[in-house]
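Collaborator request log, item 7. Partner lab (contact: R.S.) asked for a structural prediction of FtsW/RodA/SpoVE family cell cycle protein to inform their binding assays.
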Amino acid sequence: MSAPAPPSAGAYPSPPGGFAPAPPPSTRRNQELLLLGFAAVITTVSLFIVEASQEQSITWDIAKYGLAFGAIFGVAHLAVRRFAPFADPLLLPIVALLNGLGLVLIHRLDLADAQTAIYNSQPIPSPDANQQIMWTGLGIVGFVVLLIVLRDYRTLARYTYTVGLAGLVALAIPALLPGRFSEVNGAKIWIRLPGFSVQPGEFAKIALIIFFAGVLVAKRDLFTAAGKHFLGMEFPRPRDMGPVLIVWIVCIGVLVLEKDLGTSLLIFGTVLVMIYIATERVGWLIIGGGLLALGFVFAYQLFGHVRVRVDTWLHPFDDYNNTGYQISQSLFGFATGGLAGTGLGSGRPNQVPFAKTDFVVTTIGEELGLIGLTAVLMLFTIFIVRGLRTALAVRDSFGKLLAAGLSFTIAIQIFVVVGGVTKLIPLTGLTTPFISYGGSSLLANYVLLALLMKISDAARAPAPTRKRAPAPIADAPTEMLRAPEDGAKE
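Returned to partner:
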């Protein structure tokens, strides 16, 4: 039996132009959905372990939190698939896993608080995990709304000064309010109303990042003007340092009037990094670092609350039952956790004051150990690196600075939080993004995530294709035609 004849050249005519059409670009949304499912499974299993350890029984809270978690991030995924289809597929799953871990730890501390209340014959407090899942839902609502409304993030550059003014006003309001409406644990950083409270500094940091991204792009010549050379480095001219001095004065004002060391350090550090990225001059970092050190020396000499923070950092056990109790318990918790941790639900993290907010990292270190804490820090590292990759990939200068600023503010915040609870630096009162209990922090960080997703979508989207005009007859490609066989009809 003879082999079939090979097909002739005319059997598979080449497309016009001689090239096959390019395959459709991959959005990788299915990978994102798979990772979100993985985060939901880890969260649900962790809730199961916590309840089995604490109550020796399983309640309907697992189903309630698990279903709510899945529904919330399912909506977020659908919104990304529709309004930011080319965004980085790792950003949302990482946030979902961090948020889920925070929910697990808050539920675990709720159970411990309930047991303590029963032991002391006190009323059982309402669980904060219910509030956390509600704030997560509201954060996703804000995330989705921003994805829909903000069609092009570059429009924010048109409102640079308006956004900056809004950020400054948000920072100033708590300082101007009476203490009963703004002060919590000695820091005036809240707006407290009956049945409602908000921390405006969380939103102010994002507004100020947008403001400085716009200013650095519009006034780039001011920051890159030739200055004096010293020790092989170029330093800015004194008359060009006005913007940095203004930021420094604002941060010192926050430190003095609101007693908020964390926010002032966060804002100044983020702005300093953005200036360095825009200019690539080490001189700005040296001058900024000098101003930062000068500000803290000034504050230490003049303000008692700063001296208390520093003295507690240096000698936490000298006043163990008063100012040193919190950081001392944090260190004991890390020591108890060791390498592998005590296991979810098997430690005593509720012995640390503010274990759900400022010291949630201590809870991780005690029950998940150094291994678990390292895994969490790796998740944050991946998130930050993907944000910086977005800054490198996006084409416009405003998007580069905005993505870099948003990524670095998370990096600085994590460094300040972990450094504070491990006694590397003085305590600042900042919360851990996406993990700590609190509505203002979650809402602001989901706004940050939405901005990063929009920039990532623009950076990864394929370039628009232009329809080519038909080629002239003389330039048209030659096609092979098969001659009709004998006896065939022509």
